[in-house]
Design brief:
Chain B: It is found in: Endosome. Chain B: Keywords: Endosome. Chain B: InterPro entries: Arrestin-like_C, Vps26-related. Chain B: It comes from Beta vulgaris subsp. vulgaris. The complex is a heterodimer of chains A (957) and B (317). By secondary structure, chain A is mainly alpha-helical. Chain A is built from 42 helices and 2 strands. Among the domains of chain A are: 84 residues, no CATH class; 119 residues, no CATH class. Helix content of chain B is 3%, strand content 56%. The chains are: A mainly alpha (957), B mainly beta (317).
Amino acid sequence: MQKLEDLTPEEMAVTNHRDSTKPNTMIVKFRARDYTAEAKAHFLPRIPTDLHPFSSTSSLSTKVDGVDEEENGPLDPLRAPSGRIVVPSKDNKGSLDAFKSDISDSNSVELLRREWTTFKRFLVQKFPPSRTVAISSIADLVIGSQKAYEKSSSVHLDELDDSQGSVDEDVKFITEHEYTARLTEMKNEILCAWAAGNHFKSLKLSVKVARLLRDTALLQFYPTLFTLATDILDMLGDMVWERIKRKVEYLEDGAKIRELREDFQVSDICSDAKDICHNWFCKIGSIRDLLPRIYLELAILPCWRFLVDDSADVIQRLIAMMRGLGNPLASAYCHLYLVYCVQKLPLHDNGYLVTCIRDINLMMTPIISLKETTDNRNNMSNQVLVHLMEPPMEYIIKCIFKDHQQGCTIRVGLGLARNLSELFGKCSSVSLVLHHLLKELPPEIVRSNVLHILDLIECSIGSSFDQCMNFRLLGFRLYETEAPMEMVNVVLERVIKDASQYQDLDAYLKVVDGYVDIVLQNHMKTQLEVLLGGIAERACSKWINDIELDSLQSVLTKILSHTKCLEDVLELVHLLLALHNLFAEIIDVMRGTAKNAINMRILEMATRNGYIRCPTTIQFLLEVGQSLHDGKSSSNMLDSDNQPLDRLLSRFVDMVEYGTEWERHLAFLIECRATFASADEVKETLVHHANCLVMKASKASKQLVSFGRSCLAFSEATIPSIAAPIKQLHLYLETAEVALASGLVCHSDGLIESAIRTLQSLIAEDSPTLLDVDRIVCVIQKLCGLLIMVPGNSMLGVTYIPKNLLSLVNNHSLVMPARLSVRTSCANILLLAAWSQHKLPYTPGGIKEMQVPGNDLLFFDDSSYHEELASFCGRILQNVVLAIKQETCPNARGNLALEACNCIASVIKVDDNISRICNELVEMATPCLNTNHSYFFSTSKFLVNQFRTCNNKLSLA
Amino acid sequence: MSVEIKLSRSNRMFRPDELLEGKIITKLTSSISHYGIRLTVNGSVNLQVRGGSAGVIESVVGVLKPITIGKKSVEIRPSGKISSGITEIPFSLTLKQPGESKSEKFYETFHGADISIQYLLTVDVVRGYLHKSLSATLEFIIESEKAELHELPVSPELVLFYITQDTQKHPLLSELKSGGFRVSGRIPTQCSLSCALRGELTVEASALPIQSIDIHLLRVESILVGDRIVSETSLVQTTQIADGDVCRGLTLPIYVLLPRLLTCATVLAGSFSIEFKVSVVISFQSELSKLQPKSDPRTPRLWLAMETLPLELVRTR
């Protein structure tokens, strides 16, 4: 505390009045500050370096090497890739091969069983049965009153036959659950009979089960029935095998005499076992009905090994017998079971697989060529039938190509292709078979036989949906195999010719989908145009359904995604231009999310790789953006959902580059504003760009001042249309700064005025709880920072704006949090302090000649100016203490007090009055904060320091 | 207390020039004494004429006197005792003396409808008047002896056959008559009993869809009664080779396994003969066929077409 005697007269006058309650103006002296010196003092020392710390050749990396190899932690992306990533060593690969060769037969049988189980599960899932199942009375006889089954008289062989035969075909309905339950019951009965030694009964029941597979009226349930029935048959087959094996290995009394090897020969088998085996085959051979007979023989097929060494004849015979099955569905699944059972035999040639495919093919031909048959098959939808026959075919074709040596596969594949064409002549291969075959053929075969395959596809019978799928598949396969250009050209020519005959958009799209990758990869622009033209032709005249829309989206996405690297950008632009019309047409007919997705993709692609300069492209993209924007605004979506779109559009605006065509750019911005009327984020970007234009233009030439004005006018007009007030404020300030830099003072004044008006309405209208006080404080501080540069208006008074600001804030001080008022006051104090300096801390920038002079130049040596500043500051000081007292929360109050104290002490000379105020503030803070609080501590230290400095100066003065 | 015979071969098949070997197994609760254990081999051809076939006079119907092939009785144990528990007594018999005249021809075992050729082996444990004698009978199977066997391969010629609407002697459905059909195939006329009957069949054309194609194996048993020969044709076995409407032009295999006891080599003896036929029957889909329950396939129906061919069965090595 300064002694009274030491005060100067002026100061005395002040102190005399210090206790009066009337707010009297205090004489405030601002500290003089040398900003340049201060900046130099705070300058961080910088040391030049040669190596970039992130570069890979830095010496740091070598040090880290040792650590890298030891720890297996996650890869540090900032570290140089010096340590080697551990790859699976060659040893592992070798051991894998060794393991493969070690797999014995039993393992492969296990594998086969597991694959079969998986396949059966897949069948059941693919064709989930409906609630009720229609069964014919054959099945009913078996499934129904089981106990009352009468044996026919006379010869014992008839017991295996169905006495009623297939005459009666009335249809009954039971639930699928009942059917399954009944089959499970029968399975148990078979097991019990076998365990009791009654083998014949087990066989009889199994025959009944097999007979159920004749009934294909079930349709959807048939695959499930197949899985259940074959399950039972497999079980019987295993039991018979075990029985005969036991006969070989054990004596009557149970003593084991030998162990049968995995690869035993017929000569190892004793005659008793052979007899039993032979008996089984004879018993099965005496079954009258063809289907059960085949199925039963397949079930015990492995037992042929006890009788013959080479079972090729048996397999051929069984396949030939299957030709006698007239029902295509039953036949297809019977083939499937044959393929499964033959794989259980150790050595077998794969020729039978080809025969199977051929036979199934034959069966399908009459179904697909829409001939009517006169049995009750014409009630079934043929497509359902074909659909049901697909899984067996797939399985068989997969078997052809699985685990084969390369040469063998090629041979078989070629053979198959040739066989198909030989067998069916030019024009009757079944497209479905071809489809699956094409899926599995190894790529070399596809490549070497591509023309032949094309022939087959073209001539394949069946509804055209299959043909287009086959074309599509061929396209994919060619793309995979990286076919040479000549081949691609030839193929495309033919495909385009064929596809041009499709009227249906869906079919055409499927074909295009298959070839678009290969076309893009080989940069075949004309073909692409033709294809797109085809789409446009078919799409533009009708309503596109959802499936077609999806296909269209996928095709266009592929085209758009084609550009991967920077070099392709130009190409994409050219492509877009060339296809612009087509694109526009196609996109026009799309709708909904697909259209939006494509448009967004286009925008993403276009903005990804750098500036967009070409006017046509810009125009095109603007239209795209417009359609997106309109689409979004028409649907009632929450604002948050529009964010990605708005960001994308903003980015688009960012990426547009006009070079030195300022006017053009401004026109573009104006157009954008009109187009994206409701996208606030875009409008912000537009304002930023407009401001940027002003800066660029003014840097380029002094004559562009009027242009600058138009840009500013644009910004001024745009900002009010943005919804968020805080954003508006920031933009106002930014624009004002730009205006100042260009020397357009009236604009900056107008902008600042608008900002204050907005602030006013913001504070006045919103309730204090909703208001984001801190952000407003931030804006105010920023405004004050800006005002430093703004030349004062001598008519209104230099402090006109700060006064406005303060009164605005203080008018609502009762409802607003105290910090609003306090911090505004502090900001203003700092502002006034800065204005009082000889040289302003900073200038607006821009070109020096265009700059507006700041207050330091305007009011140089104007004492009334300084007086005004000082008196206003004094008034603020008085209000500050009161304002702080308004704060209810002690902690906050304490902080605010210290803040104010610091602010005052740093810019105002701490004389007695000031120190009194500061001490008051510190005292206010004391009860609120812990005296050990660092802020408190540092503040008081600072205060003492400032006081001392000031006093020293005073004493020196 | 029981006695049973167990032959050395589980399939009980022997040739006449082989030894009939086996063992007699007695299961006794207490030891018994007997006057001898006797084995008897009894082979006979049993003939009967059933009524119902056309042209058979009432007086002829009935069981005729069986023709004895061979009867032989051998005592394998003289009178003595058998202890309690399980006792096995092996035996070995010759069925046919080498060098014996061929008057007693050993026909193959056959179970037919009218004719049955059986060989029975009976064991008797004679026990005197007060006790019930233990006995058991077992049928065993005789196959032709090696010397008489044909050499493989049996005549490989296959006979071509055609079945069309014109080859049928019975009336057919009008659609069949007008639309026509043609089924061709090949079938052997001579077949070995150890192999299956193999042939092929192709449906070349058909106006109506096919319901089923079956191969019927038939036996023709003829018996000389007085001066008249009474023949009976009956069904041995049916094998379906096509189920449903098969593809046209596709060759289906005929593969029929011959049942063992129900077939034997074709026999043409003086007083009886056993012959075989094979019949290919095609049944077409029609409403009429659904109305009729399955009947004797040899009866011609409007929706059936058939072709019957003779078949000689021979035993080969």
